[in-house]
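# step 3/5: fold
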Amino acid sequence: MNGETRYTIGELARRIGLSVKTIRYYADQGIVPPTDRSAAGYRRYGPEAVARLELVRTLRDLGVDLSTIRRVVDREVPLHEATAAHAEALAVQIRVLRLRQAVLTEASRRGAGPEQVELLHRLARLSAQERHRLVTDFLDAVFDGVAAGPAYPGIMRSLTPELPDEPSTEQVRAWMELAELAQDPDFRASLQRLVRQYDADHDVPALPRPDAVAVARDAAAPALAAGIDPSAPAADSVVAAVTGRYAQLTDRPDDADLRRRLLTRLETANDPRRDRYLDLLAVVNGWPAGGHTAPALDWFVRALRARTPR
C-alpha cells in the first residue's frame, strides 16, 4: 500500500450517496474500476476512484448517457465537449416538450376534441418556412387589391408575427391561436374590408393621415371612462368632434353621407377578433401589449348610430 486512504464499496456508497449495487455496476462496466482489492478479494477505492465516481454521479444526475460518461472519464472526449453536446441535445428536447406542453395546455383550456387537438399539434410543429408561408398567404389576402402606398409596408410589418427560435410556452400557445385566426376566411374578409376602407379614406393628397379608427377611439375613451351614455346629449360633442375631424381627413363635408360612411368604417373595424389578433401578435413578437380598441370603438359606434339617419 502507498499510504492512501482506501474505501470499501460500502464505505464508498455511504460517502457518495449511491447504492452498493450502482457502484458495483459502474465497476463491472469499467467506468469506475476499483483501485485495488483487499487480501480477501474485496474491492477497494482510493481518492482518484472517489473523484471519478463523483463526476459520474454528477453527469448521470444531469442526464448524460453512460457511453458518453465512459469516454469522458477515460479521457477520450474532453468534458467541455461532452457537456456542450449534451446541453444542445437537452435544448432540442426542451423545445419539443415546450411545444407539447403548449398544445396540451391549449387543448385542455378549450375542451378540444380529437380534430382540434390534431390541428393545434400541426400548427405548433410548423417549420419557420411553413409559418412564414401561412402568414404571407394571410397578409397577401388581406391586402389584395389595395394601392401600394408608402404606409403599407409598415402596416404589414406591424401585423406580421415572428415566433422566436426559442419560444416560451405562452408564445407557442399565442402562435397557435393566431394561426387559426389567420386561416379563418371570415376574419380574413373582415380585415380585408377594413384595409380597403382605410385605403379609400387615404386616397387623398398629403399622406400620411391619421386613421379614423384611432381618432374615434381616442375621442371616445374619456367619455367611456366617465360613464357617459352614448345616447345622452353629453355625447353630442364627442360625435361632432370626430365627424368634423373625419371630414377634414377625407376632404368631404360633414353631412349625413359622411356619417354613414364613417359608421360603416367603424362597424367594420369594431371586430373583437382584431383586438385579439393584436394581443396574440404582441405575445408572439414579445412586444408590449397595446390598448384595446373595441370598448371605446363600440361606445362611439353606438353614439354615432343614434345620431345617423339610415
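# step 4/5: annotate
Residues 79-110 form the longest helix (32 residues).
# step 5/5: archive (pending)
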